[in-house]
Design goal:
The complex is a heterotrimer of chains A (493), B (322) and C (117).
Chain A (H helix, E strand, L loop, with lengths): L5 H19 L2 H29 L2 E4 L10 E4 L1 H28 L5 H20 L3 H20 L5 H31 L4 H7 L7 H18 L8 H7 L2 H26 L5 H5 L1 H21 L4 H21 L3 H32 L10 H4 L1 H15 L5 H15 L3 H27 L14 H19 L2 H18 L1
Antiparallel strand pairs in A: 1-2
Helix pairs in contact in A: 1-2, 1-4, 2-3, 2-4, 3-4, 3-10, 3-14, 3-19, 3-20, 4-5, 4-10, 5-6, 5-10, 6-8, 6-9, 7-10, 8-10, 9-10, 9-13, 10-13, 10-14, 12-13, 12-18, 13-14, 13-18, 14-16, 14-17, 14-19, 14-20, 16-18, 16-19, 17-18, 17-19
Chain B lengths: L1 H13 L3 H21 L3 H26 L11 H18 L11 H4 L2 H6 L1 H5 L4 H9 L1 H22 L18 H24 L7 H19 L1 H7 L2 H24 L14 H32 L13
Helix pairs in contact in B: 1-2, 2-3, 3-11, 3-14, 8-9, 8-14, 9-13, 9-14, 10-11, 11-12, 11-14, 13-14
Chain C lengths: L6 H19 L3 H23 L19 H32 L4 H10 L1
Helix pairs in contact in C: 1-2, 2-3
The chains are: A mainly alpha (493), B mainly alpha (322), C mainly alpha (117).
Chain lengths: 493, 322, 117
């Protein structure tokens, strides 16, 4: 029976845990509940993906009403993969968060923190697993609202402003999305993604449908921080509590990109959009600009969390670039980078959380000599940095390799070179940190090793380790991403 | 009608008196509710009036009490925003040109999915209010998500503004002042409002209404009590910890119904398994679920009200750090 | 063109744009939220306008009524209204906290304070 209900369990577990965490009220119990819930979710998502790979698309009808009259879950290789990303990061962040949150959030509020985190997780999972366009909006708002609050818990008062700005921009994005859904509904009468995919191609010349696509894409691009709609991201990542930044950086934008993929490739897959509108070229150009601007601005940041945030904008650019190639290789590159970047950035921000805890600051100037004082953390940081650059043996390399392959397949040496060039810029900003941490003396000559607690080091090392492991043996991730890409492109023809 | 709306909104834009803007917004919301009635959307009109014109406006006013009444004159040129708005508007207009005519019964929106809700809905769900049928059953999962949004918001406001009363307790006379008229009228009004709330909750499957509206109405009754009789008395009726718990309980009721369906053999949220006659089961499920919604919404609105009203300006007394 | 048949929609678009304008052009944090709400409510109007059927009545089964308006947009908008007010509550709570921290809710002033920092 569990097997048949696997899809709903994915959502039900965190969803049930949230009100329970609220009723439990103590920091320890709510944390423990979050731990159990997140690990259980991870188990479920692995089981689900295995099932999808074995059986094909998994469908679950809620309320026993068939779509499009009812809402259904529809899980294929793509969202099965994304589900794992979310639950994996969740499962690793909760143990990490224990000490980090204790240091950064008041005791009285900790149970609320974990309740909110569980809600956020449910929201993100809900977006990923649903087959209904409006339902996506509802869970998008669950995840967004919880995100705004989680960000606002940061110690710096700028966290409040960052949260407010994100709320305004995010709600505009969500409203655009809803306008898009409305326009599509107006012309097709359906809200179900699969159904829309069937109905849309015949209406490709219908202006309402076209406007619908524009609004859907715009709304989701805001949430995914696609350049130039990324302005909310740097402040949100910088001022949020450390554990929150880890979780968000590794999941929130990935899920928004997933939703974007669903809209562009599944709903509009049957329409030869890319040709028709030059969407393909526009996206590609925006992506390339993101790659460069993000990396360049990162070099000039004095606050390392902010530096990593700008780096994320560049990395999202890589993902969008892959998608804009509109080829199986390109889309595979984009999808696999969702996973790879989650690992890399997750690990990096975890390192920053450790530094924040022990050194009390995330500014570059305060990181002098950290290589000696926090050897494990800095080693993890370096490994993450190498992955950002795309050095072989890291996951970053795998993604870039496929991107370059996709570019060459389309005969574009230029783009391939641009990819390499922007990666070199990453060397600059990673090197800055390395230089200060390893080649400068610590203040007061204090070389005593004071590392972060084990409960924070271990999750960090797991993520960093994974980013190396999957860089060496990328066959699993590439297979899954490839299967997902093929399925998507197959719809498009 | 629509022109009236536009006028109201423009007035709100230009006003720098935020209090006026808030009230104008309330009027805008209310006018929209009337428009909804005109467009046959009775449930929506009801909810918009209660939630939009009611709750939102109250929240705005509560905020303004704490932050100041006037807006600064703006020095920036509105050029960039105008461009953005212009482009967006143009895109929308472009999109509308291929839209089906207003009211056209042959529009895809009416002939595809919605047809079944109208033709078979009451029969399949046992409930004549088609909106309730879709909301609580066909698309019950969406509504579950919505309740979670309510949960998140209530929780969020509690986290942001603190869960304790700040700046000392107010005894029975505080809030509006000790006026006999208020107390007498208040008592009658509150009783009536509560009765109405119950009606809306349980009659929502036959007429307009349902859990959300009922939850808000009930909360209104208690808020009136709080305003007239003071916070201390209100807290004895409904301690703050209970408002927090009620949100969780309401949600668990909803989830519970869904899980019950699972345990009895169907997928999550399948109500037909709840009774031997599937249609009766559907009806029962809908009632229970709506009740859960009512409880959760009540808890959330009360929590939000408590959070906002528990704050004091520095001049009104000290503030505990939260 | 189908102008007269779409008149309602044109009005809705105008309302949407006014709301949108308020959000992005005004610097007062509370005003922005008002604008956001106006924007959202006009989107609701869009959906409900879409749901109306000529000669239809409210979608509650009743004797003698043949034509009903479409209940689906109603359901969607009920959800959207609730989501909207949830966002408003959250946004305003943030504004209150910002006011406590910064002493102002004007974006310009806050920006200036942060630049000096």
């Amino acid at each position: 029976m569990i097997f048949q209900h696997l899809p709903i369990l994915q959502i039900l577990i965190p969803l049930l845990a949230a009100p329970l965490a609220l009723l439990l009220r103590t920091p320890l119990l709510s944390w423990a509940l979050a731990l159990v819930a997140s690990w259980a979710s991870l188990a479920v998502s692995v089981a689900l993906l295995l099932r999808v790979l074995a059986e094909g698309v998994v469908v679950y009808e809620l309320g026993d009403w068939a779509a499009p009259w009812g809402i259904e879950y529809r899980i294929d290789a793509l969202n099965g993969f994304v589900l794992i990303i979310i639950s994996l990061i969740g499962a690793i962040v909760v143990p990490y968060a224990k000490r980090s949150v204790e240091a950064e959030v008041q005791d009285r509020r900790i149970y609320l923190f974990y309740t909110m985190l569980l809600l956020c997780m449910s929201g993100l999972l809900g977006i990923t697993i649903t087959g209904d366009a409006f339902n996506l909006f509802v869970f998008l708002e669950v995840s967004s609202l919880s995100t705004y609050v989680l960000i606002s818990l940061g110690r710096d008062r700028r966290a409040l402003i960052a949260a407010y700005r994100y709320l305004i921009v995010g709600t505009i994005g969500a409203t655009f999305y809803i306008i898009g859904v409305g326009l599509l509904y107006m012309s097709t009468g359906s809200l179900n993604i699969g159904d829309l995919a069937r109905l849309v191609p015949a209406l490709a010349d219908n202006r309402t449908v076209q406007a619908g696509m524009a609004f859907l894409t715009l709304g989701l691009s805001i949430k995914a921080a696609v350049f130039p709609l990324h302005l909310w991201l740097p402040n949100a990542y910088t001022y949020a509590p450390s554990a929150v930044t880890v979780f968000l950086a590794a999941t929130a934008t990935k899920v928004a990109v997933y939703a974007l993929i669903r809209v562009v490739f599944t709903i509009f897959g049957g329409v030869d959009l890319f040709e028709a509108f030059g969407v393909h070229t526009t996206l590609m150009m925006m992506a390339i600009v993101a790659m460069f601007v993000g990396s360049i601005v990162a070099v000039y940041q004095g606050n390392i969390k902010r530096m990593l945030a700008y780096s994320s904008i560049a990395q999202i650019g890589y993902i969008i670039l892959g998608l804009s190639f509109d080829s199986v290789t390109g889309v595979t590159a984009g999808i696999v980078h969702l996973f790879n970047h989650a690992l890399t950035k997750g690990g990096l921000f975890m390192a920053m959380g450790c530094i924040a805890l022990v050194a009390g600051s995330v500014r570059l100037d305060d990181m002098a000599g950290l290589g000696k004082r926090m050897p494990v953390t800095m080693a993890a940081f370096v490994a993450g940095g190498l992955s950002l650059i795309g050095v072989p043996l890291t996951v970053g390399f795998v993604s870039k390799w496929y991107l370059i392959k996709a570019a060459l397949e389309q005969g574009s040496m230029l783009i391939a070179m641009l990819i390499v060039l922007s990666s070199l810029i990453a060397v600059a900003y990673v090197w800055r940190v390395v230089e200060v941490a390893y080649f400068r003396d610590p203040p007061d000559g204090d070389t005593a090793v004071r590392e972060a607690p084990v409960s924070m080091l271990v999750p960090m090392l797991i993520l960093v380790g994974a980013s190396v492991y999957f860089g060496i043996d990328a066959s699993t991730t590439l297979d899954i991403a490839g299967a997902a890409a093929a399925a998507l492109m197959g719809v498009g023809g | 009608m629509l022109a009236l709306l536009v006028v109201t909104v423009i007035a709100a834009v230009r006003s720098t008196d935020l209090f006026a803007a808030a009230i104008l917004f309330g009027i805008y919301s209310f006018l929209t509710a009337i428009l909804f009635m005109d467009l046959d959307a009775v449930d929506v009109a009801f909810t918009e009036a209660a939630v939009g014109a009611g709750v939102s406006t109250v929240l705005l006013l509560s905020t303004l009490r704490l932050t100041g009444r006037y807006e600064q004159r703006h020095k920036h040129s509105p050029a960039l925003p105008l461009v953005v708005v212009g482009l967006t508007g143009a895109a929308l207009v472009y999109g509308m040109t291929d839209a089906p005519d207003f009211g056209d019964p042959e529009a895809p929106a009416h002939t595809h999915v919605a047809k079944r809700y109208i033709e078979d809905g009451p029969r399949e769900t046992g409930v004549p209010n088609m909106v309730t049928g879709v909301l609580a059953s066909y698309r019950g999962y969406d509504t579950l998500g919505e309740v979670f949004v309510v949960f998140t918001a209530g929780l969020a406001v509690m986290m942001l503004l603190g869960t304790r009363v700040r700046g000392g307790r107010s005894s029975g006379r505080e809030a509006i002042g000790d006026l006999l008229v208020l107390r007498v009228v208040g008592k009658v009004l509150i009783a009536f409002v509560m009765l109405f709330g119950l009606y809306v909750q349980f009659h929502g499957d036959y007429g307009a209404g349902g859990g959300f509206q009922a939850g808000v109405i009930f909360a209104t009754a208690l808020i009136v009590y709080d305003l007239v009789f003071g916070e201390a008395d209100a807290r004895r009726v409904m301690p703050h910890i209970w408002t927090e718990r009620l949100i969780a309980i309401g949600i668990l009721i909803y989830l519970g119904v869904g899980v019950a369906g699972m345990l009895l053999g169907g997928p999550f949220l399948d109500y037909s398994k709840l009774a031997t006659d599937p249609v009766k089961g559907e009806h029962l499920g809908i009632l229970l679920v709506e009740f859960g919604i009512g409880v959760a919404v009540f808890g959330a609105v009360m929590s939000i009200f408590n959070a906002f009203s528990g704050l004091r300006l520095p001049s009104e007394g000290g503030r505990d750090d939260v | 063109m189908a102008f007269p048949g779409l008149l309602n929609y044109w009005f809705v678009v105008i309302l949407m744009m006014i709301g949108f304008f308020i959000v992005i052009a005004h610097g007062n944090l509370v005003k922005k939220i008002v604008g956001l709400n106006v924007f959202q409510i006009s989107v609701f109007l869009f959906y409900i306008t879409m749901g109306k059927v000529d000669g239809g009545s409210a979608p509650i089964l009743a004797e003698g009524i043949e034509v009903y308006s479409n209940p689906l947009p109603h359901v969607l908008i009920l959800t959207a209204i609730v989501v909207g007010v949830a966002t408003t509550a959250l946004g305003l709570a943030l504004v209150v906290r910002i006011n406590e921290s910064y002493g102002t809710i004007e974006e310009d002033e806050i920006g200036a304070m942060e630049d000096d920092a």
